[in-house]
Amino acid sequence: MPVASDRVGERPQEAVGMMLNHIQAIRSQFPSLHLPRENALPAVFFDNPAGTQVPQQVIDAYTHHFTHANANLGGEFSTSQATVALVRTVRERMAAFLNAPAAEELVFGPNTTTLIRRLSLALAQRCQVGDEIVLTRLDHDANVAPWLAIANETGMSVRYADLKPQDCTLDLASLEAALSDRTRIIATCHAANAPGTINPIRWIAEMARSVGAWFVLDAVQSAPHLSIDVQELGCDFCFVSAYKFYGPHVGIMWGRRALLDDLPTFKVRPAPARAPGRWETGGAAFEALAGMNGLMDYFTWLAETVHAGDEPDRSPAARCESEVFKRALLAIQRYERTLVTQLIAGLRAIPGITLHGIQDPERFHLRVPTVLITHREHPPKELATFLGARGIYTWHGDYYAYEFMRRMGHGERGMLRIGLGHYNTTTEIDRLLNALQEL
Ligand SMILES: Cc1ncc(COP(=O)(O)O)c(C=O)c1O
Prior knowledge:
Blueprint: H1 12-28, E1 44-45, H2 56-68, H3 78-97, E2 106-109, H4 112-124, E3 132-136, H5 145-154, E4 157-161, E5 163-164, E6 169-170, H6 172-178, E7 183-189, H7 201-211, E8 214-218, H8 230-233, E9 237-241, E10 251-255, H9 257-262, H10 286-306, H11 316-319, H12 321-348, E11 353-356, E12 370-375, H13 380-388, E13 392-393, E14 395-397, H14 402-407, E15 415-419, H15 426-438
Parallel strand pairs: 1-13, 3-4, 3-7, 7-8, 8-9
Antiparallel strand pairs: 2-10, 5-6, 9-10, 11-12, 12-15, 14-15
Helix pairs in contact: 1-12, 2-10, 3-10, 3-12, 4-5, 10-12, 12-15
The protein binds pyridoxal-5'-phosphate (PLP).
């Protein structure tokens, strides 16, 4: 059985303190956190799994791009050359962010859903009638529906790995039972967008390897909370969406170079024959890529800020950008652990509320700070409306976790999702808990 892969490193208290000391500096990077809204109070953004706020670096990068480098690729003039340089830089920095072996393995697109659909169409051409796809009931429909569609179109069959309703973790025995020598594709999420469960990815990667299947990983909901290392995770493809981790609306697919170069995919004839160009159809949103560059600047700022008091590590490894991003995400992960501990303890003390998902602090390394609740009397929409009127932004419904909500028996109304991010504070959690107490 798998070993949890996401335990944070040593000295957690120190790291938490580091973020706490800097939380006001961190929040000051995000202009939208400070605008007065409902009741003249600043909003509390607990809608982060649906999309996060952006730091000033991202906003500035848009302005800079539109004023200094707004051109298509390939022109013999400075703005076009600046755009070419921008795309190269962002690809290299995203490769560092995901610890990908090569920048050419990163494909940019409008969002994850569209990119998974494109990949599914490509893989379908390498599958046959009777081949099998293994999916989970923890996934967002972006990593389910495209596979159902190709199964339907090509005569493949689909098997589901179930979940354990009592703690919303993946039922590993059922995943193992779903595998066979006909399994060609396994598609799972890293962290589930509804209950926040972190799946044992390296173990699933081993399972995929043992049956010779491609392993498609949706890391959209882990990227805001954990450092993602595609080499360590062992998947064949990995997807993230920058708007879920403080950036603009850009979807990113990482794939193994040989597969990206070889799989059949639609391209216009003059487009490049090799990856990533053969996957990136049409003009890209260069301004959004500029925003991604600003986002990488933000993570660098964050790593430097939270580690400002440390003895400088001048080793080449410490200077490499993927280490910088890793340090930023580690600080985020440790800080968010304290926030989710406070949130879950507070929610458990409120009569009428039921929590869904991992609640034991000893197992918090197996979850991200996305928390699901239902209320004995008030349906999720009513809770969201009540909180929204008090300037506390949460989400209700199924958030496209279609299989999950049905399996949990909440297909009709869904649940209330409270999704924390690293700019949230203990005071904001108190505001939410007090509001729920009022009910
Ligand atoms: C886990 C997960 N996967 C995929 C998606 C879809 O992402 P996109 O909006 O970039 O298509 C989401 C969006 O909420 C998600 O939470």
